[in-house]
Structure to design on (177 residues):
């Protein structure tokens, strides 16, 4: 089987607005620190940290629209900003994978971020779920999610517009192995 590529959903208007507000807020703090009279070392350290944060969030914002899933005979790769999760096909539980609507399945709602970005309309990284353990999330739309459980004790919860096609390929190619 040749690699199959599935795009993750692009940012929604809410998530774009969240990023813009965040970046403008950080830029405002940067300007305030620049103008504030404070010791030179403290000012340099503060400005450096803020510049790194602005750069990081800008990069995530820019790269979010090129995030993708790659499914091959041997592995599944989730390639998103700051994270690249690769799982062998043996680590996946394709028979249990299904499409999820968080409004219908509240126990899968992310509750606590352990390593990632969480803002209105955008969740990326490692999160604890309300009632089902831990998951790697790449969410921009809570009604178009695909849940892929793994044998490693966590799941993938991803916004995939072609979710049915992705599941069909995941389950079809696993039955051929």
């Amino acid at each position: 089987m040749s690699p199959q590529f599935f795009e993750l959903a692009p940012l929604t208007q809410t998530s774009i607005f969240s990023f813009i507000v965040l970046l403008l807020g950080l830029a405002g703090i940067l300007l305030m620190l620049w103008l504030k009279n404070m010791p030179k070392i403290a000012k340099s350290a503060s400005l450096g940290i803020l510049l790194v944060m602005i750069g990081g969030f800008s990069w995530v914002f820019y790269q979010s629209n090129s995030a993708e899933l790659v499914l091959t005979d041997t592995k599944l790769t989730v390639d998103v900003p700051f994270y690249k999760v690769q799982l062998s096909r043996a680590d996946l539980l394709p028979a249990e994978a299904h499409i999820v609507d968080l409004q219908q399945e509240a126990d899968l709602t992310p509750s606590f971020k352990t390593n990632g970005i969480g803002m209105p309309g955008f969740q990326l990284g490692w999160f604890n779920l309300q009632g089902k353990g831990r998951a790697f999330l790449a969410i921009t739309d809570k009604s178009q999610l695909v849940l892929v459980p793994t044998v490693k004790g966590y799941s993938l919860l991803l916004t995939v517009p072609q979710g049915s096609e992705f599941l069909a390929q995941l389950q079809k190619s696993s039955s051929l192995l």
